[in-house]
Amino acid sequence: MLNEKIILGIDPGTNVMGYGVIKIVGNRAQMMVMGVIDLRRMGDSYLKLGRIFERVTGIIDEYLPDELAIEAPFFGKNVQSMLKLGRAQGVAIAAAIHHDIPIHEYAPLKIKMAITGQGQASKQQVAGMLKRLLNLDEKEMPKFMDATDALAVAYCHFMQMDRPQTETHYRGWKDFVNKNCDKAIRSLSILNQQKKQININKHI
């Protein structure tokens, strides 16, 4: 019997977060699902984080991934945007850790190189290569490329599975805390603030 593994890929975002799930059978990968968590109509940043945790948890419960592969935040000039993106990524990671799912974090450059061989590849080029690699029909291609970006993260991890681990890897909550004490504290603080905000809104 061939070994099977399910990988959940996440492309963090504060307005649109992509997700993609692939199933590995032996040395072949096939797409199970891809889509986005649309947060554009939600104004409150803490409610957005709560929605991310809720939806990622739902995806995990439905597809039962063995591992999570997530894109690391790209360090840009806008500090406020980076802070928000880091929070979104942290909440998605917390959802996986809550289910005892190992986490693998990959830089955007690493993902693009793995899929297309070009570190500066466009979203369209990444999507086009995934279409060929996974034999996807045109009707399966999503409206938002955040979904194909997430699928790319999952496929990137699939390509690294038989190679020495070079990217950030967490085996559970304790391991995550040991390697990212500040990030873990922020993630828990954000979730607690989000819960308080929901309770406040319920009483308004």
From TrEMBL:
| Top EC class for this record | hydrolase
Q: One GO BP annotation here?
A: DNA repair
Q: Name one GO molecular function term.
A: crossover junction DNA endonuclease activity
Question: What cofactor(s) does the depicted protein rely on?
Answer: Mg(2+)
Q: Its catalytic activity?
A: Endonucleolytic cleavage at a junction such as a reciprocal single-stranded crossover between two homologous DNA duplexes (Holliday junction)
The UniProt entry's coiled-coil ranges are: none
Query: Which Gene3D superfamilies does the UniProt record give?
Result: Ribonuclease H-like superfamily/Ribonuclease H
Q: Which family does it belong to?
A: Belongs to the RuvC family.
Q: Tell me the subunit arrangement.
A: Homodimer which binds Holliday junction (HJ) DNA. The HJ becomes 2-fold symmetrical on binding to RuvC with unstacked arms; it has a different conformation from HJ DNA in complex with RuvA. In the full resolvosome a probable DNA-RuvA(4)-RuvB(12)-RuvC(2) complex forms which resolves the HJ.
**Listed HAMAP family:** RuvC
The GO cellular component terms are:
cytoplasm; Holliday junction resolvase complex
- Keywords in UniProt for this one? Cytoplasm, DNA damage, DNA recombination, DNA repair, DNA-binding, Endonuclease, Hydrolase, Magnesium, Metal-binding, Nuclease
Question: Where, subcellularly, is it found?
Answer: Cytoplasm
Q: Which residues form the active site?
A: D11, E71, D146
Mind telling me what this protein is named?
A: Crossover junction endodeoxyribonuclease RuvC
Q: What does this protein do?
A: The RuvA-RuvB-RuvC complex processes Holliday junction (HJ) DNA during genetic recombination and DNA repair. Endonuclease that resolves HJ intermediates. Cleaves cruciform DNA by making single-stranded nicks across the HJ at symmetrical positions within the homologous arms, yielding a 5'-phosphate and a 3'-hydroxyl group; requires a central core of homology in the junction. The consensus cleavage sequence is 5'-(A/T)TT(C/G)-3'. Cleavage occurs on the 3'-side of the TT dinucleotide at the point of strand exchange.
Which Pfam families has this protein been placed in? RuvC
Q: Detail which positions bind Mg(2+) 1.
A: D11, D146
Q: Any idea which positions bind Mg(2+) 2?
A: E71
Q: How is the cofactor bound?
A: Binds 2 Mg(2+) ion per subunit.
Q: What is its EC number?
A: 3.1.21.10
